[in-house]
């Protein structure tokens, strides 16, 4: 991606950044051997870096967030990225304190999603009254503040400066590519648990997420952004490495063997195509189809052929483990005959338990982030293991926060999609190729998130990054082009 010059009031890289960056990297290296000492040194450097260049600190957050770096305290994982977000939040508050409470509220709660977001936090706070774990609920509220409030504000801080957006997106695409390469290594050498075996001699890729559906979600939400930028963006974005990253991202979706990811990207590409056809016509649609449709098909074929290899030499071949084509077929049959598919049958049991939680706690739920405690106390008959969540965003929030949680989910997602579609349709003529492509990609990422979260729950560190960048991009464009400003 080709960076443009950054103005002096929008610092990205400078000589002043080098000492703080060196200290942060030194701390990271020391942490490999002496964790606590290294972490302390790292954050000294990171705090300094944040005060010198907020965009540089945000880039480092993007790089670090998908990796499980952190500590476990009171049964909760605290990531290094969580502490990085706190530092950046303090920097934003310091820089904009003169705007007063109203100004800070506008900065942290962007207009397109402001009121559904406020409603979500009201329901989350109210859920403390009936929470099964007050500590767990408070941690979840802070986590949502980090994602939907702090990081969206950080990414939109410098507006539509293309150079800074190039760096944010490049960091995301590089991290996804690295994650997929590691996932391919797992897939080819069968480096994973037996229950993840596919095609006999392989396993579903998990990357560093530990779960294939989360790995797939990270890839499937990134793919629409990449496909739109490469197909519809300016010539400077049609570089070879971005096309390689696009191919790797599509490969990541496939080797996750996550049906939710496959359906999410299929639906995302379809709706993106409709939006492109309505705003830029058939030629633009053809260009997009050559990347958004052809690349995933090629990667399905590649993975199908790779499935015929055996580099594991573990003799764990079991004929029942489906190959890529069979897995694709069962994506349909699992809907028609859920009882005949173990994964689908287990999800139905989990969803039944979530509905039970909603019936028992319809007003305030069991506390944000506490459904896993409810199902642990009331396990349905036939459940193979206690899940960490409800495998459905809407039922998860319904169980956690009552019926208001479901309203919050639907209202929030509607505001995401409606604002992005409205911008693209009404402001097509005013949008540069770069921002047209970015907004169409953001819409695709939001769509993939909405679809995939019908069968999974993907609000977690790392996997949420593509969505946060998409939300920030739409809110930036809304401030510049939207008819309603605040």
Description:
The protein has 19 helices and 4 strands. Strands 1-2 form a two-stranded antiparallel ribbon. A two-stranded antiparallel sheet has the order 3-4. A hairpin with a 2-residue loop joins strand 1 and strand 2. Residues about 5-10 have low confidence and may be disordered. With about 475 residues, the chain is mainly alpha-helical. Helix 9 packs parallel to helix 11, helix 9 packs antiparallel against helix 18 (about 435-450) and helix 10 (about 240-255) packs across helix 12 (about 295-305). It is globular and about 60 Å long.
The best one-word shape is globular
Total strands: the figure is 4
* SSE-based structural type: mainly alpha
Low-confidence stretches: 3-9
Question: Which H/E pattern describes the elements?
Answer: HHHEEHHHHHEEHHHHHHHHHHH
Main-sheet strand order equals 1-2
The termini sit apart by 32 Å
Number of helices, counting only DSSP H or I runs of 4 residues or more: 19
User: Which radius of gyration do the C-alpha atoms yield?
Assistant: 22 Å
> Sheet with the most strands?
2 strands, antiparallel
Protein name: O-antigen ligase-related domain-containing protein
Keywords: Membrane, Transmembrane, Transmembrane helix
Pfam families: Wzy_C
InterPro entries: O-antigen_ligase-rel_domated, WaaL-like
Which terms would index this structure?
two-stranded antiparallel ribbon, 19 helices, 4 strands, O-antigen ligase-related domain-containing protein, 67% helix, O-antigen_ligase-rel_domated, transmembrane, two-stranded antiparallel sheet, mainly alpha, 486 residues, membrane
